[in-house]
Predict the 3D structure of the following.
Amino acid sequence: MKFNTKTIHGGQKHEEATGSVMPPIFQTSTYAQSSPGVHKGYEYSRAANPTRTALENAFASIENGSHGFAFSSGLSAIDCVLRLLEPGDEVIAGDDLYGGTYRMFTRLFGKYGLKFKFVDMNNVENVTNVVSESTKLIWLETPTNPLMKVADIAEITKAVKDKNQNILVTVDNTFATPYLQRPLDLGADIVMHSATKYLGGHSDLVMGALMVKDAKLAEELHFIQFAGGAVAGPMDSFLALRGVKTLHIRMQRHCENGKAIAEYLLNHPKVGKVYYPGLEDHPNHDIAKKQMDDFGGMVSFRLKDESKEAAFKFLESTKVFTLAESLGGVESLVNHPSTMTHASIPEPEREKIGITDSLIRLSVGIEDIEDLISDIEQALN
Ligand SMILES: *Cc1c(COP(=O)(O)O)cnc(C)c1O
């Protein structure tokens, strides 16, 4: 099956009792047994729920994996991956990460003896140079949130596995989605999503996903999901599955609109730097072209006037773009990373990597491009 067909049919079958084309919302915690331990594959909804199973099969299918897992949030999916590790183990992660990922690594897992090294993943050597005996996990986010840096998944995975085959590579594929980039095909072991964003696509739920292609790893993750308990509920699973079915057409429009806005901003006299991997002058444009099928709907930029006041003026002036956290929904959103999504990163760290007060992040939705551009135009003026 090709991708567009997979988003609709991948891993899916019609419900057996009635032929219902969409899986019913199995709003139940438990399942009748005919004798102790004799049941129809479902015992208790933390372990498995049929609506969630349907979604997890769809998740596996769209990332070309064998198994998928749905969690109560993107962060709980990340938490599940980190629980594969033991005290003393080391994680190498990019230096421009989603703020909540950084917060979880440093403030939740640091105290349990996990070690974290943050490097600029632009360059493969930056990663291989810090691999040690204790390195167990590489955490790759690409494109990154909010600076849109791109890391070469295939190159980094190969270089790291040449050093030690057992190091796991996880890719946070939230920004790209499998419509643009399929990390498991590039050698990664685990794909992670905040399904809150593009996979769900309608800003109506919070959810996380993991996808893998190895049965043993799947078994370990399923145990942690079950034992840790942060599962997605049946109603949210239904909504996410409904969202996934239009992922390809939504992404097509997100990409078209994202590119048009990036080009518009690039030529605007009041705009300074524009961060979009589809632009020729993006430092990682070549890697992006190689590993992504298009460049997505996330665009960051700076105003030439780098004051906080100028940024706030813009953020308060848009009408079609809503000022809000989150991204990846059908509607356009605008965000101020340094005070909103990335406020959990200490200021010196933020300054070092460039998440300053002048940085503005757009999640370009699927509205008419003329309306989006005229909204930005009036807000810039
Ligand atoms: C939002 C986000 C997360 C966290 O997911 P939640 O669903 O908010 O818990 C992780 N990574 C990236 C890139 C994100 O944008």
Summary: The chain has a mean pLDDT of 96. The chain has two domains: 3-244, 248-380.
